[in-house]
Every structure is written in structure tokens, then in C-alpha cells.
From TrEMBL:
GO terms for molecular function: protein-containing complex binding. Gene3D superfamilies: NAD(P)-binding Rossmann-like Domain (3.40.50.720). Residues 10-155 form the NAD(P)-binding domain. It comes from Thioalkalivibrio paradoxus ARh 1. InterPro entries: ComplexI_NDUFA9_subunit, NAD(P)-bd_dom, NAD(P)-bd_dom_sf. This is Epimerase. It holds the Pfam family NAD_binding_10. SUPFAM superfamilies: NAD(P)-binding Rossmann-fold domains (SSF51735).
Amino acid sequence: MSIKSVCILGGTGFVGRHIVARLTDRGVAVRILTRHPERHRDLKVLPEVTLASGDPHDPATLEDFFAGADAVINLVGILNEQGRDGSGFRKAHTELTEKALAAATTAGVRRFVQMSALKADMPDPPSHYLRSKADAERAVFAASAFPVTVFRPSVIFGPEDSFLNRFAGLLRIAPFMPLARADARFAPVFVGDVADHFVNCLDDPSTFGKGFELCGPRSYTLRELVRYTARLTRRRRPIVPLPGWAGRLQATVFEFVPGKPLSRDNLASLSVDSVCTGETLPCPTLLEAVAPAYLGQEGHQARMQRLRTGTRQ
């Protein structure tokens, strides 16, 4: 690779760890900015990885962090905000992206790759989440100092994901599953396929200046995904699709539950199907080829072993 050093924002997260592993396998030096380096000692064992402490919203910190890097990958994203007016999404997605672009320009970075979300590029996104992602995309494509690429994945699955694992957790405690937007459709994409595209695009001129949708080979309704999760975890529960008014009520109540398992903004995002309709790149890994290993009995035993030994993957 002509790209020899990469700075990653959001590198300690679910997708970030897979990208970091692939970059270091190729001998690329990786720097990760985090507020709490002591919480991510497991990343330090990877060759060529440096954890830097700092506030990603501080422009001077970003300029120092990007200095000498060939490329920047921005993976920062949140599914919920503390408030309800969209300001949390704007800060995490739009404002941070704008600061990162400015700092990367000052630092002389040669490449910028952005994580967005499927349907963020539609004419009138229905949620604060998608609108903030759309504004971030516009800022990225307006940059002129370096070639950029944007990826828009559907829901991402894999070990330690926040989607199927969340439903697995709810199924453990719920006697039945009341489900808002049960017929919303998704094309789940494997985290390994997403990570491959982020890494492969860095030196690929055919991806410069473009946005790509990332979807798995099959689409499913939300009801089908929850039913499949229940079968794998051996916790078969009645699934009760909720009418619109009941779904809105559920989301309103759940906004006050720790962890916000569902919010009104999530519900708004679910009003558009998360399936690909634009320019895509191949993501061939089937959900059924991976999910049983971390949701099924084998995955349960592995999780219990990690808890007993105090290790994680």
C-alpha cells in the first residue's frame, strides 16, 4: 500500500477494531484517538498501533493527531443522543466531521474516508440521525484538499454488534417481544466485509470522490431478524407487531430506559427500508454463515469462557 499511516477516529469501536486489525496485517501504522486509552489495552498488543489520548472535538488536538498521517478514517457515530432535538447527533456526526476535515487539510493528509449510513443521501431524511449523517456527507464531498470516499452500510452484524446482540439481550428478559416497525426491511452486512472495503479503498482511485452503499446478499424484515435471533438463542418468544400509535408510545417510554433500546428518532429512521438502491460494492457474507457462532450455543459457551477468564475478543 502507498498509504503507510492511518489515523482513525472511532477506532476502538465495533467496526474500528476490524479495520485496525486489517491495516496492521498489511503493515500499516495506525493511530487511534480516544479519551480513555487505559480502557483499550487489548489494542496495544497489535503491531503498529498507537493509542493517543485527547478530545476529538478539539481542533488543535486533531491537527496534532493527524500530523504526518497519510489518511484519516472517520468512524464516529452514535445511535442515540442524550437530548431529543438533534443537537447530539449534529455534534457527533456533522460538527466532528467538519473539524476533522479542517484539521486533515491543515495537517496535509492525502486521503479521507467517512462512515455514513444507508439512506443518508435521500432527498429528505426522516430522522435527526440520518439528517446529521447527510450533512456530514455534504461536508466530506465539498473537501478539495484530498480524495474522499463515503460508505453507507445497512445494519452491521458480527460478534459484539449492537443490533442482533441487543435483541438477544431483550429476548432473555421479555416474555414476549412487542415490535415497532416489524415490517421494516434491512440488508445486514458483515463487519468483515465492511472493514475490507474501508481498507481496500485507500489506494483505489476508482473509489475517489464516490459514495457506496454496503448491503449483505439478503434482505429481511425486522420481525424475521428478531425471530431468527430468538431461534439461535433458544428463547422463542411471541413477536407482537405494534400498530403505529403503539410503536410511538413504546419509543417514547423506552427513551427513558437506561441504554435507550428504542427512541422516537430510531423509529423515524425505521420508516425507510435499510436496503441498497444505489451504487454498491459486493458484501457476500451471509448472516446465517456468521450469526450462529456468536448468538447460538457455541457463541454462548465462548462468552461464558471469556467471562471466566477475564478476556475478550
